[in-house]
Amino acid sequence: MSELSVLLVEDNPRNLKLARDVLEHAGFAVTAVTSGEEVLAAARTAAPDVILMDLQLPGIDGHAALSRLRADPLTAGIPVVAVSAFAMQVDRDRALASGFDGYLMKPISVREFPEQVRGHARGPDGAP
Amino acid sequence: MGEPQDEPTTPGRSAEADDPVWLAARLAEAQEQLTATREILSILARASSSEDDVFEAVVDNARRICRAQAAQIHVVDGDLYQLVRSRGLDRDFFEFSADNPVPRDRDSLVGRVALDRTAQQIADVLADPEYNRPELQRRGGYRSIIGAPMLLDDEVVGVLSVWRTTVEPFDEHTENLLTTFAEQAALALRNVELSSALQSRSAELARKVDELEALADIGAAISSTLDPDEVLATIVEHAVDLSGADGGSLMEYDEERRLFRVRTTYGTSDDVREQLKTVRIHVDESFVGRAAISGMPVQVTDLSDIELDPHLRLLLDAGWKSLVVIPLVRPDRIVGALVVRRLTPGAFSDETCDLLTAFASQSAIALTNARLYEQLELQRRELATTSQHKSDFLASMSHELRTPLNAVIGFSEVLLERMFGELNDRQAEYVQDILDAGQHLLALLNDVLDLSKVEAGRMELEVTTFPAPDAIRGVLALVRERAGQHAVELGFDPTGTPTHITADELRLKQVLLNVIGNAVKFTPAGGTVTVHAWTEGPEVLITVTDTGIGVAESDRSRIFDSFQQGTRSAASSEGTGLGLTLTRRIVELHGGRMWLESELGVGSTFGLALPRQVHTGPVTGWTEPAVDDGRRAIVVIEDDPSSAELVAVHLTAAGLRPVAVRTGEEGLAAVRALRPAAVVLDIHLPGMDGWDVLSAIKADPQLAPTPVVVVSVLPERGHGFALGAADYLVKPVSKDSLLGAVWRAVAERVDRAGERRDVVVIDDDPVALELVRATLEPHGWTVTTCTGGAEALSVIRAVNPSIVLVDLLMPEVDGFEVVDALRADPRTAATPVVVLTAKSLTAKDRQRLRGRIEFVASKGELDLSWLAARLTQVATGGSVPDEGREVQP
User: Fold this and answer.
1) Cβ(A71)–Cβ(A45) below 8 Å
2) Considering only alpha carbons, which residue of chain A is nearest residue B391?
3) For residue B767, how many other CB atoms are within 10 A of its CB?
4) Is A110's Cβ below 8 Å from some Cβ in B?
5) Which of B107-116, B179-188, B210-219, B763-772 shows the lowest per-residue confidence on average (mean pLDDT)?
6) pTM for the full model?
7) How far is B368 from chain A (nearest CA, A)?
8) Which residues of chain B lie closer than 8 angstroms to A86, CB-CB?
9) Could you tell me if B281 and B301 are in contact, meaning their C-beta atoms sit under 8 angstroms apart?
10) Which of A12, A18, A87 faces B398 most closely, judged by CB atoms?
11) Residue among A14, A107, A110 whose CB faces B402 most closely
């Protein structure tokens, strides 16, 4: 099983560090950006198997960043999972309705997190 | 061939009677007279005829039949008799005669008839020594003249006279005929009198009806809508229309600033209205103010005649000429003023002022209501804003707290997972403490969010049916570890536990976890926590009993409130303080309830009861605990907030406890949970509609006895009663009819235990009898039938029924006679009678039945279910609503 790559989009440095350390420990190749503006370029360059995106970001937010990814043929097929501290059912519903492939609520469960991410990642051949 | 007719005035049978020619002439004469009389009578009989028409016919026929040159009618006017109608007079004579009315004296024939009150003639005026109207006689040239009095109530109201220009006296026969014509002319006068009296009476009646209708309209507007401007506009509009004025305004008095403010106008141009709204009308410095202080209507007949304040100046400049100010006062204070204006000068009649005063009292109530409503609306908006702010704050707070908690909890877990190396025991213990604290904060956060969700009406239940023992065991497994640490023994005996339960599984587990977790937390080492579950009636009951420290009585009622842990929190126990509140709210969302039994130092039992059937759907609104505060609960199912509010206000004022919900699903859950004394049900509801709710209530044996009063814009009484509604009111509904219906429904339910329903049906048509029997028997009636009125009386005395249903048209003894006989007999005088008939009732029939029967149902368009419901209503002592007293459904 080859290494899965993940792009983290997270503006909070501690939460970014937590996710990166847990995922790298679980064998993921992790790249990270801290704003919505950087997401598209990073995704085009890294072509990750899955993108984990915070919703509340400085500048353009997670929903807007998702639209940019979906609008670009190079990145349109990459699964994007929201990882958010918004805890209401409406927040989850809204995210899924706007095209996120999954919704993970903070706080994350360290033990289950790698498996949850793996579940959303597309295979090395590009298949979901 | 007999003697010549030298005595033409001698009537009657004589020798001439044998002369066929004479007879033929007499017959022709008689026929002619008859025709004339008929003609006059037929004119008299025509309702539309005026006195002129009759007089015209009278003079015409009198002149012709009496073979006279002229006929004339004089009508009394004061002491004189005035010529009003004639035939055969030239204009000159008529004018002269009309200019010289006749006094009651012997100078003239008309005067003598008026004086003597009898018919008489002057054979030749020139030969009569007393006759003294030479000028008139010269102009008319008449010689023989005869007259008859027009008598009304013994008064000579006029004289009918005819004359000839030759000396040719009139016979007795002619005199009789003239007397008849005079009587007819008098009748015409009486008719005209009556008819004009009738007309003015009916005009007055029509006006009264208009007034009453207007007042009723306003009453309806006041009670059916809480939109104050609509009510006020209705009042001004009707006040202006009914007083025949051109415009008006309604002012509200601002007590603090001592100013009147124009709220609503009618018949007033937009720019004048805007000016009126800004003009300063101070109570001490204005005409309106002075009227208000006097408490009486005050009018200005011509605005250009008086000293003007700015308000009146503005009106005069805008073309208004007269007005009346009606103060609106409540017993203790000025509320406002109603101003009704005209574009022409002139006084307002006392009648108009009285009418407007009646309006004023309605208006004062409406204004007071409008103010209360506005305050309420303001508070509601403030509350809504506050609530929105609260939700926004909670969402944002939750997000901001979760972000750092993610790091606290996550890194703790990373360390405890030994992802990056070993920890020593003490380090592991400390990291565990950090994790526990982080998770406690998270739980607190989640409870806050859940609770705010419930309170905002946004918590939705996902109801399924699942195995109850498994759910309880699952929760026990979650607390087993902690119980072990506290050395508390957990007990659960699944015997008697229902195999399945219907609820939101996750929420129910959350509830049980909270209650069992609390019990473990507050039970000292060596104690026990025992769970029981069983079914009782329509409910599933679950209790959690501990041998813990107990809850002091003073804390028991507060323990379900937010942030109350009772004194037991002294034991440094950790909890969110929201758990039990949230728990109770979730149970109530299911239509259930919670309770607590406890003894200090001995232990506590927390119980929860869930209805066995929970209806799904968004549940909003009623979070009111199902406490019995002595007032009877009325569940109000109505999606329109202002209507619901209005109903609630009326019910509360009547000492009842309204519980308002907005959907049928919630309504049904509330009925199950609260077992209200009655239900007030709207039909148009989102989702499950009122008919479904009504059917569901009546289909459930536990709920079926609950009376349901339908209040709807749909006029489908029949359908409502057929489905089992206790009453059916069509919106808009007045306070009285609403409360009447609710109280009747409540009382009826109480009475039902001892009710007996026997009906005797009397009809000569066997098919009709069978139809009524077939209709009433399924509704629990015992039906005795009779085919005739005579038989019926003895049957009724024998059966002593709770109601009698009688046809009107029957051979021999008819329905009217049956009613009369029943009312005459003390044993049956009070037995309610309902008339069922194909006959359309005349005014006389109604008069005969009025007050003696409950109502009339027409066979033609009869809705039998409706009849059944109405009979039940009558039999159970519920008075029939007024509009149903004489119903032709």
Assistant:
1) no
2) A88
3) 8
4) yes
5) B210-219
6) 0.41
7) 43
8) 395, 398-399
9) no
10) A87
11) A107
Interface confidence, given as ipTM, is 0.80
Q: Which domains does chain B have, with CATH numbers?
A: 15-195 (3.30.450.40), 224-379 (3.30.450.40), 463-611 (3.30.565.10), 623-752 (3.40.50.2300), 755-884 (3.40.50.2300)
d(CA B106, CA B110): 9
Residue B419 with chain A: CB contacts under 8 Å: 21-22, 25, 110
Query: What distance in Å separates the CA atoms of residue B155 and residue B150, rounded to the nearest whole number?
Result: 8
> How is residue B371 written in tokens?
């103010």
Considering only CB atoms, which chain B residues are within 8 Å of A105? 402
DSSP state of B731: S
CA gap B807, A115 in Å, rounded: 84
* Chain A partners within 8 Å of B453 (Cβ): 88
How far apart (Å, rounded) are the C-alpha atoms in residues B724 and B704?
9
Query: Which residue in chain B has the smallest CA separation from A11?
Result: B403
Q: How far apart are CA B884 and CA B889, in angstroms?
A: 9
| Contact flag B406-A86 (C-beta cutoff 8 Å) | no
Report the distance separating Cα B609 and Cα B617, nearest Å: 20
Burial code of A36-69, b = ≥16 C-beta within 10 A, e = fewer? bebbbebbeebebbbbbbbbebeebebbebbebb
Residue B882 in tokens? 């007024």
Q: Kindly list the structural domains of chain A, giving each domain's residue range(s) and its CATH number in brackets, ordered by start.
A: 5-120 (3.40.50.2300)
Q: Are B467 and B500 in contact (CB under 8 A)?
A: yes
Please list every residue in chain A whose beta carbon sits closer than 8 Å to the beta carbon of residue B451: none
CB nearest to A85's CB, from B399, B438, B453 = B399
| The most confident of B679-683, B728-732, B735-739, by mean pLDDT | B679-683
Distance of alpha carbon B86 from alpha carbon B103, whole angstroms: 19
Pairing assessment for the beta strands B80-87 and B70-77 based on DSSP bridges: antiparallel
Q: Residue A51: which residues within 8 A CB-CB, separation 6 or more?
A: A6, A7, A9, A39, A43, A69, A78, A79, A80, A81
Quick: pLDDT tens for B184-198.
788 777 766 666 666
Residues of A82-91 as b/e, b for ≥16 C-beta within 10 angstroms?
bbbbbbbeeb
User: Which of B883, B878, B886 is CA-nearest to residue B717?
Assistant: B883
CA–CA distance, B68 with B745 (Å, rounded to integer): 80
Query: CA nearest B410 in A: which residue?
Result: A110
- Cα angle B91-B97-B103, degrees, rounded to a multiple of 5: 165
Nearest in space to B616 (alpha carbons), one of B465, B460, B471: B460
A61 contacts on B by Cβ (under 8 Å): none
Closest CA to B648 of B656, B625, B740, B227: B656
B839-884 pLDDT tens trace: 777 777 877 888 788 888 777 656 666 677 677 667 655 444 333 3
CA distance B395 to B445: 10
Q: Give dist(CA B744, CA B884) in Å, integer.
A: 15
Distance (Å) of CA B590 to CA B234, B257, B515, B613, B639 = 45, 52, 17, 9, 20
